[in-house]
Structure prediction request, 480 residues.
Amino acid sequence: MKLYNKLFASFFLVFSLVSCDSYLEQVSPDQPTTDQTWVSYEAAEKYMASTYSYMQANGWRYHEYFYLPQNFRADDIHPEYGTTAWSYLGRIVGFNNTASDGVPSVMWYYWYKGIKLSNDLIKNVPEMDVLTEEEKESMVAEARFLRAWYHFNLLKNFHEIVLVTKVAETPSELQLPGSSKEAVYQQLEEDLSYAAQHLPAQWEDAYWGRATANAANAYLGKILLFQGKWQEALTALDKVSGHELVAGTEYRGLFDGSMEMNSEVIFSGAFTAQQMDALGLYHQLGVAMAPGEINGGWHMASISDYYMNALESGDIRKAATVVEHGETFDGETILFDDPEFNMSIKYMESLESITTNRSTVDLIFMRYADVVLMQAEALYELGRETDALSKVNLIRERANLAPSSASGTILRDEIRTQRMIELVGEGHRFYDLVRWKIAAEQLNASGQQYAENFEEKHQYFPIPLEEVQRNPNLTPTPGF
Prediction:
């Protein structure tokens, strides 16, 4: 059993019930738990488990506040009426949202809460006499990985963020100004480099889901890639070891719960049937993605025609990702009221998960396919086209496709297309389009129904209005 995940789950449930007070409004947040927490290895481990809990929300809150907003603003997944019927989601996907909309506020709160708990660990663990130096280093490294993970998610989603690297001791330290992207990236690089040096390459199965040195190097490579530091990114990505692409016939197992603990997954958020039964922990991506005629689905999003047209004949990823009208899924022939509808089945384990509104498939945050494609991109940008092509062909071979012989900008576009096909629905595409500076172009090319509303400001969410009101040192997002 995933013992650490059970510990994580219990704390996820507790902390998910905490009211959404502003992170920046809390006073001396380490004080209330100091006496109870920093007294034993077991207590510190429980606090570590709670620090993971803000990576994802439970039930409908996950897909409405995290999954859909991070996935349905791109060219591969488009919103449907189950989304646009809700005004607060419709405004986001229609690119007419404001600074007072609630979805970005939840992101801001969750991720800063995760940062706060990370900083608690980083400050207090080194002072715990009951721990060995090795235990201290490992715990601090894990906390620094999580602090970087939360900051990176904020950085991708908001035009400006507050870099928080220590526990607030005075009220003034709760009202920090926004930080430059350069300063944030520098801190992320330092945190992830430390984590890569002091975390194990792998944990034993009982601790599946914890950050590893491989996860740290993969994310270090990603943040360097986002900055265009191609050689540094490649150096970090090349340090990821012990992971591989799963065999083609096992590909679907990555997303239906049948093969969650495998060599391709580098970092994921774990759910189990035991957690669902005992603690009520689950997500609802199955029912969210299905249309109403399929076991009462909520019809919130679909795979775009643009994505479907990019697929090549024989690509095994198609059957693992999307179901079309008249195809078989979970042993049944699927018929949609709209024969043109394309149903996403990533993280949908069965038709029963639609009926029960409950899914427990692990959510993948980082897998080796992403690393390979990032290596391909860095190699291409460094002018090493032959090496870049070999990386792309690893992905194509696993997908049961003939090798490519592309070069020049055609190779660049092939790398980008393979990223879309491979990672659809995993929270990457919109941020790729933004960093490539082609978001508006691709929204229009894919026929996204609100593409004409997209402006440069919509590359980011506005800083929540209540945060600006609470913190006079924060600058309101321009244009909102």
Observations:
- The chain has two domains: 3-275+365-470, 276-364.
- The longest strand covers residues 265-269.
